[in-house]
UniProtKB/TrEMBL annotation:
One of its GO terms (cellular component) is plasma membrane. This is Response regulator. The modification 4-aspartylphosphate is found at residue 21. Keywords: ATP-binding, Cell membrane, Membrane, Nucleotide-binding, Phosphoprotein, Transmembrane, Transmembrane helix, Two-component regulatory system. SUPFAM superfamilies: CheY-like, Histidine-containing phosphotransfer domain, HPT domain. Residues 110-186 form the HPt domain. It is found in: Cell membrane. GO terms for molecular function: ATP binding; protein kinase activity. One of its GO terms (biological process) is phosphorelay signal transduction system. The lineage of its organism: Bacteria, Pseudomonadati, Pseudomonadota, Gammaproteobacteria, Enterobacterales. Residues 1-86 form the Response regulatory domain.
Amino acid sequence: TDGVQALHKVSMQHYDLLITDVNMPNMDGFELTRKLREQNSSLPIWGLTANAQANEREKGLNCGMNLCLFKPLTLDVLKTHLSQLHQVAHIAPQYRHLDIEALKNNTANDLQLMQEILMTFQHETHKDLPAAFHALEAGDNRTFHQCIHRIHGAANILNLQKLINISHQLEITPVSDDSKPEILKL
């Protein structure tokens, strides 16, 4: 398959992953990737090249590839990257408001880093949210605001706009017995 054929196939059918040779006739893997990204495709794209130089990998990442791997591609390397991709895909649906393109940009398309950020966010938020409610009930305003501030910061990193707005509102709302019902509604 050449790059033009690959572009046509990808536009006609859903794929979970595209592994493309960098050096193809008619349209190389870099141009294919650029065209797919112009279409706003969030399809994971891995480039494969025999040119094992750092600038080749950098060129692949700069055009929008998630990974640029060197030939020969061993089964172990393929399994490792597929496992990471599966883990990110498994976590991401929990964050339906997640701006995946912003996350990719913030992590330079590093799947392992994306996975670590999402897992850390999930773990820390599952600690901070109950702690914030407990602090609110106990009248511990300082702890409440610290927990909400951490959640707000994490939401900013992931560009979770709805959570950013809610946590910001919670940060600026003075906590009192009168405001507790309003806070709990948020």
